[in-house]
Amino acid sequence: xxxxxxxxxxxxxxxxxxxxxxxxxxxxxxxxxxxxxxxxxxxxxxxxxxxxxxxxxxxxxxxxxxxxxxxxxxxxxxxxxxxxxxxxxxxxxxxxxxxxxxxxxxxxxxxxxxxxxxxxxxxxxxxxxxxxxxxxxxxxxxxxxxxxxxxxxxxxxxxxxxxxxxxxxxxxxxxxxxxxxxxxxxxxxxxxxxxxxxxxxxxxxxxxxxxxxxxxxx
Length: 218
What we know:
Layout: E1 5-8, H1 18-32, H2 38-42, H3 49-57, H4 64-82, H5 94-103, E2 107-111, H6 117-124, E3 132-134, H7 147-156, E4 163-167, H8 170-178, E5 182-186, H9 189-192, E6 197-199, H10 207-213
Parallel strand pairs: 1-2, 1-4, 2-3, 4-5, 5-6
């Protein structure tokens, strides 16, 4: 079945907000007197805010209301950082690929666990390049469950086998494969090695080259 759409993760694929997330989580961890390193932050890549908080807490127990307030506090820190973002914060090649996909008549969706995804793509100036947005508010089960990508495909009116997911996180690659999608992994082999195609980044990437490398008839 030919490819008719692409679903893009946001952080680490279209823009690098990882540093902002790290700074926000680090600030919260310091306030709680919990050690938190960049290696700890890597383990949070691609998963929900709540799951990220639980990992940061490293087994420390808090009432649900406290967890909610901690998530809100971290998000406030993060929002303060991302309000500095501009279209110049797009990763190399990402905007060009989105435009090429649109010009080819294929559909595009965002599939991000971030609850701030819509604001980020607005600030990057790429909101108009997406037919649909699936974010942290869209489904209950986040990555590595396939629900977010399945929801994005439904919004596009496509089946998983008609879509390519572009991901940079282990949890995201797993979610896409579980959902029956074709997957392009952005990053090192040890993180995205199960993807159908692995790329270091999207710089100088052409649509026809991507499609030619996928194990699908086009």
